[in-house]
Amino acid sequence: MDGKAAYNENSRSNTPVIELVNLCKSYHVGDMDVPILKSIDLRVMPGEFVAIMGPSGSGKSTLMNMIGCLDRPNCGQVLLMGKDVDTLSDPELAKLRGLEIGFVFQNFNLVPRLTTLQNVELPTYANKKPGVDIRQKAMNLVEMVGLKERMNYKPSEMSGGQQQRIAIARALINDPSLILADEPTGNLDSKTGDEIMKIFSDLHEKGRTIVMITHDPDLTEFADRVVHLKDGIIDNN
């Protein structure tokens, strides 16, 4: 079964890639508990492209941390591929997250001293799959995002758009169930941002599941579904 067929097969699964059930999150500030997310219910199915929008202070970053299993809720459940992450130890959760979620950040988060290939290979260091030629796979991904001639360059030798392409290739190296993109075009000019969104669109067409956090309404045109967040609540109006 080739890659596209495998993704299409996964897209028929009835198990959500990520599911938030009655999720609440607050932070202790001084003598007060400040609620950030309130009774959030959200399901993302295989093959979906979901955009999450909201104004500053709406809870988008906290919601991203919940979806990415980077933080634990005060109440409710987070299920990743049907597994309740609250039942996992921190090392177990880190391993599951590393294999099932590929992260693309606004600031790229590349390691300056590493080359393009080394940055793309980085997530495999802690989660190496047996029988996989990581170097060849990384080279294939770098070529896929159009940077074949930049494999041995370091981040400082490349533009912002090129660095984001590397970040996308890195996010794909472990064949994750979910790509989580946080403002992926936020530090790019409009032309470069369009090129990055074209890559996401192509990945979606091949069956990849994508959740994108954004404040830009133009980017929601690429998504199947838009979730509006306001004051820590999903706004269904």
Strand and helix map with partners:
Elements: H1 3-11, E1 18-29, E2 32-44, E3 49-53, H2 60-67, E4 75-80, E5 83-84, H3 90-100, E6 101-104, H4 116-121, H5 134-144, H6 160-172, E7 178-182, H7 190-205, E8 210-214, E9 225-230, E10 233-234
Parallel strand pairs: 3-8, 3-9, 6-7, 7-8
Antiparallel strand pairs: 1-2, 1-4, 4-5, 9-10
Helix pairs in contact: 5-6
End-to-end Cα distance, whole Å, is 42 Å
What percent of residues adopt helix (DSSP H or I)? 25-40%
Number of helices: 7
Shape: globular
Arithmetic mean of pLDDT: 90
Q: In the residues, how many domains can be counted? A: 1
Note the run of SSEs as H and E.
HEEEHEEHEHHHEHEEE
Reported by name, the CATH topology is Rossmann fold
Q: Structural class of the secondary elements?
A: alpha/beta
Strand runs, count: 10
CATH superfamily: P-loop containing nucleotide triphosphate hydrolases
- CATH class descriptor: Alpha Beta
Report on the structure:
InterPro entries: AAA+_ATPase, ABC_transporter-like_ATP-bd, ABC_transporter-like_CS, ABC_transpr_LolD-like, MacB-like_ATP-bd, P-loop_NTPase. Keywords: ATP-binding, Nucleotide-binding, Transport. The protein is an alpha/beta fold. It is 31% helix and 25% strand. The model is unreliable at 1-12 (pLDDT under 50).
